[in-house]
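Archive transcription. Copying these from loose printouts into the bound notebook so they stop getting lost. Printout 1 of 2:
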Amino acid sequence: MSLHIGDIAPDFTVDTQVGKISLHDWAGDSWVFFFSHPADFTPVCTTEMGRTAQLADEFAKRDVKPLGLSTDSVEEHLEWIADVNDTQHTNLTFPIVADTDLAIAKTYEMIHPDQSETAAVRSVFIIDPKKKIRLTMTYPMSVGRNFDEILRVIDALQLSDAKRIATPADWTPGKDVIIPPSIANEEAATLFPQGWVEHRPYLRTVNVK
């Protein structure tokens, strides 16, 4: 089964180091940053888990719940988290899925045989409050994720939902956004009374708060 943007994220019930969770119930009405890593006690993963913990307030203010995954056990997670906290100077409290039978990693296509038959690659799924997959990213095992980009795309998705806009290349919060071609000028005048710049009939930019 291939998962695509717009699909409902497959639900699952699984053990984590903070207890058993069911994805859809645990997510509630929040967004979810669901991300996998190859294994506990590995260097790149340690920095990524630490960075996620360090950004707890940034995720919280966006109403995003981080959820990690590896194919190791709860016991290994607990031991490894102590290393993460010590080396990354943080306090990791978000759940890490213990996917020891690879069931979830296979459902979410996190196992890439050329990389490993048993370890997950660095997958990212951004899941919205309706449990829809809104964005996916996949990194190889040797490359750590860019967390500025992860926060940026969450901001873009949330602003797009709230204001019916699209975001241009390299957009960051506060910069001009795009009025989609599907919105005619008459409707745009109601949605964006501050006015916009028409570079081409299909390319209109506006600043929104």
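Printout 2 of 2:
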Amino acid sequence: MGWQVTTASVADGEKAAFWGEAVSRTVVPVEVVPLAARPFDGRLASHRLGYVRVSTLEADAARVSRTAGLIARSRTEPQVGVGVQVSGRAVLEQDGRRAEVAGGGLVLYDTARPYSLDYPERFRTHLFHLPRRLLGVSEGELRQVAGTAVTPGEGCGSVLLPFLGTLAASAHSYPAPIGDRLAGSVADLLSTLVGQLTGRAVEEPEAPNDHLVRRIRAHIDRHLQDPGLSPESVAGAHHISVRYLHRLFEGEGLTVSRFVQRRRLEACAEELARRGRTAPTVSSVAQRWGFVNPAHFSRAFRAAYGVSPREWRATGGGTAG
């Protein structure tokens, strides 16, 4: 799904503000100050590929700033941003670093900290944004590379830049399952780029989207107590389709729902086995870990551990009888 906006039908005095609001709604909240004396002209097209937002901006000279105040008021989670310059120049400043690129280069930035992007002449650029937590790199590594420019001749820039350019041009044409897979490829390539820029030792390559599976498992563990946890809620939280979520878990040897149930049963078993002065009731433990049907919980627990929840609690996690 995507959308497009243009200043063509907006009154001259309102064009810059209109375009700035469109960028803020679509990409990330920013301030836009036009640098040309004439009425501002700008176009924006944006599409989502899984958890990656791909936006193409074409506009007159402008300064785009993400200020500390905007960050403090922002409700969006931290994003890693990549600007691929198609035409015109871009000058990025973040964390005391200044990076300039012309057409064919890219800049990296972190939306969790202030930055500015100056476009001193009319420009066209592709912006890629994805949640920082899904990139699979540390915050320290991101601080090292934010405010950095990459040219086609540097490291994996020769692979990444053509790929991103082609992806932006065709983002509107991919069905959701393909978009989900392409998002994983973007994250993997950016993670590799960050590793190269920081000098991180090259490790055993992961299978595609291993980083995403780890984060989905961590998300499930954090939300085990929510009875509304489901494949639909997990997929929605990571901006992927339910179908693609199930495909990711094929390597786990069980469905997403079964994985959630197994983790809940493990949490219940651990709590019921604890020795204390006041032992919790079986029903309270089951409810605390997301089981809404006591009979279903008892059946599932016995199937997994060979004894009833009460027998498990009575023996401290040992074998009944």
